[in-house]
Design goal:
Helices cover about 45% and strands about 10% of the residues. It has 22 helices and 17 strands. A hairpin with a 2-residue loop joins β3 and β4.
């Protein structure tokens, strides 16, 4: 069989080969479907069952994904697609940034009149991802392993990939790991056939941006390796370059079509590169998010900061297989290892780059930060476009899995021995991953019975406010229980200037808040708008000019914190005890201010000075007060200092003012 100039072997694709390919695709897809049903069951395939979307599963993120779809479903059809003006109003935002899977959101928006009133597509998307994962994994393994049973057995490693299950129905769109396996398949197929261009690879690269933009650099890294190796080996550069440019151009066009470049969605990403970097222990650390333990054999390791998002546990079976293969290669055939690296030099190069990007300039190991390498701020800002940089390791992760399977086949050689070795390795892997898989299964079952993250919006205020307003104005910061608030807003068909998204137009949000603030300062209220404040200081500043305008003003307490509200037209509504009206009896609370000197509003050095947000109300209370009362105890006021703009600093006769944290405070007026 003659070798081609690209280092592969030319081979006719016979009818038997096509039949085998079809069986591998079908068998892999069946494995993925079975895995889905074993963990999640049938309930997420009921499109009218949105309980796990509303109550949260593992994390609250699924609430964001579902809310984005609800907002978009109510929006008028427009171009670019996936843009809703009901969030980040009035500019609007693409629901790509609520991770609502733009391709499906657009498709089902067209079908919306035919769909039931309650409709979610996240369960079916996850099922299709797992089926595609199995199919792509089987075809990839079929390039290296003989027959059908061997590749399908090894395919269980891909189907039960921990990094996939860590995302499934949690960060739903990020479960599309089949993109990576398919890109690797085309890479190795290209190496064998001496080709650099495939229609499937071309389409795959474009499709990634319609699902989640993080997959774009991953599949393009593999694509670039194939094109570069082809160009160098053949001394033909124009054709690969034109192919790559055409693919990139259509990918950008697809991103534009689905609204990813709509507005200036930069907020939420600034200078966060490094925080979500990959810990050096990630490959053997089975610690998943929210306490999920992914290993029967290995203990959980410590992490730093956002390392949890760079979860990359390989599994005990794969780790054991990788160790065996490396030892044999290093001691028995180091030349073969070097030859392998030289043969796939561009793939190794992009793997090194992806790994370095994933680790980031903040190098962490276990619970320690080993070093923070100097990077120009401008470069950090650029890298922060992909702020969760640890995810970029995923193509390398799957290459390591593939290397173990191929290494075992080369090590054991005889077909029946290879099958036995892969069986042992796969069984070890599945036993090891069983705790994590079972925790996932149990967590999803519980999500069907009760909310994993119950709403804090339990006050009857929210029921009485329903239907009164067309929009919610988010006046400051991140609102308490923001994602339940997003669902509440979407369910009532309201608009909001709050983006409820990972990326948003920060300047537009601040501009709109400034407009609202200027109106309130002149006593002007929009009767169709409910004003919400995350910060009490901002509320106290804004409320004075409108407190007598027929609006209910005050604080609404919930399990996760408090909302500060100006509700036009609700002054005469009878509300429950969770609602604290703003009047002269409204209680004081310490400002929740923390920096190098202050800890939640208490000066660290003395523990006697506390701070309050400077507002007309707090000035009236404090400047005429002799003492502060908390929990029945009286603390005389020694001084009130307003020299720091925006704050009132009060020194008390108290031993440790941290006892005032979270307390509702009253004042005793001075005697005339």
């Amino acid at each position: 069989m003659p070798a081609n100039k690209f280092g592969g072997m030319n081979r006719m694709h016979t009818a038997a080969d096509k039949r085998r390919d079809g069986l591998l695709l079908l068998g892999g897809a069946v494995l993925g479907a079975v895995a889905f049903l074993l963990i999640f069951g049938l309930s997420p395939l009921d499109v009218t069952n949105d309980s796990f979307c509303r109550g949260g599963y593992i994390e609250k993120d699924i609430q964001q994904h579902y809310a984005g779809w609800l907002f978009y479903r109510q929006s008028d059809l427009s171009f670019p697609l996936c843009v809703t003006d009901n969030i980040n109003a009035p500019q609007g935002l693409s629901v790509a940034y609520t991770d609502s899977i733009p391709l499906l959101a657009a498709f089902f928006r067209f079908l919306s009149p035919l769909l039931p009133a309650t409709f979610q597509y996240f369960g079916w998307f996850t099922l299709l991802c797992l089926m595609a994962q199995g199919a792509a994994g089987a075809r990839l393994l079929g390039l290296f392993l003989d027959g059908i049973t061997g590749p399908l057995l090894a395919d269980l490693l891909f189907v039960f990939s921990p990094i996939l299950w860590e995302r499934a129905l949690r960060h739903t769109s990020l479960a599309a790991h089949f993109f990576i396996l398919a890109a690797l398949y085309f890479y190795f197929l290209g190496r064998r056939s001496g080709r650099h261009c495939f229609r499937g690879l071309f389409a795959l690269n474009i499709l990634t941006i319609t699902i989640h933009p993080y997959f774009v650099p991953m599949t393009y890294a593999v694509t670039f390796a194939l094109l570069l190796e082809y160009a160098v080996s053949r001394h033909r550069y124009l054709s690969p370059a034109l192919w790559l440019l055409a693919d990139l151009a259509l990918t950008v066009a697809a991103g534009w079509m689905f609204g990813l470049f709509y507005g200036t969605a930069t907020g939420g990403s600034d200078a966060l590169y490094g925080y979500f970097g990959m810990n050096l222990n990630s490959l053997w650390n089975p610690a998943g998010v929210n306490g999920v333990d992914w290993s029967f054999f290995l203990p959980k390791q410590n992490q730093v900061g956002g390392n949890y998002d760079a979860f990359a546990y390989l599994g005990f079976g794969v780790l054991a297989g990788l160790f065996i293969c490396l030892i044999r290669m290093l001691f028995k055939a180091p030349k073969n290892l070097w030859a392998l690296i030289c043969r796939h030099w561009a793939l190794c190069l992009v793997s090194i780059i992806l790994t370095a990007f994933a680790i980031s300039h903040v190098i962490t190991a276990n619970g320690a930060t080993l070093a923070t390498l100097p990077l120009p701020p401008a470069l950090i800002k650029v890298f922060s476009v992909f702020r969760s940089g640890g995810r970029m390791f995923w193509p390398v992760y799957y290459l390591l899995m593939l290397a173990v399977c191929v290494g075992f086949s080369r090590l054991l050689k005889r077909r029946h021995i290879v099958f036995a070795g892969l069986t042992v390795l796969t069984v070890l892997q599945l036993i090891d991953l069983m705790p994590g898989l079972m925790q996932r299964r149990q967590a999803f079952a519980e999500a069907q019975k009760q909310d994993a993250f119950p709403s804090s919006m339990t006050s009857d205020f929210w029921q009485q406010a329903a239907g009164r307003y067309n929009s919610i104005a988010s006046m400051s910061g991140l609102q308490t229980d923001a994602l339940h608030l997003a669902l509440y807003t979407a369910d009532l068909g309201m608009a909001t200037n709050d983006p409820f998204a990972a990326r948003y137009d920060a300047s537009a949000l601040e501009a709109q808040r400034t407009v609202y603030s200027q109106e309130l300062a002149t006593g002007e209220l929009r009767s169709d708008t409910l004003y919400l404040f995350a910060d009490e200081g901002a509320f106290l500043q804004a409320v004075e000019p409108v407190k007598n305008s027929g609006a209910w003003c005050g604080r609404i307490d919930g399990a996760d914190g408090s909302w500060y509200v100006i509700a036009p037209g609700m002054a005469d509504c009878g509300l429950d005890t969770a609602c604290i009206p703003y009047d002269e009896n409204y209680p004081l609370r310490l400002a929740d201010y923390t920096d190098a000197l202050w800890n939640r509003g208490v000066l660290d050095s003395t523990k006697q000075t506390v701070c309050f947000a400077d507002a007309p109300f707090t000035r009236r209370k404090l400047e005429s007060a002799a003492a502060i009362v908390a929990d029945g105890r009286t603390y005389p006021i020694l001084t009130v200092d307003d020299s720091d703009p925006g704050w009132l600093m009060v020194t008390l006769e108290i031993e440790d003012a941290t006892v005032l944290w979270g307390q509702e405070l009253e004042t005793i007026p001075c005697k005339n």
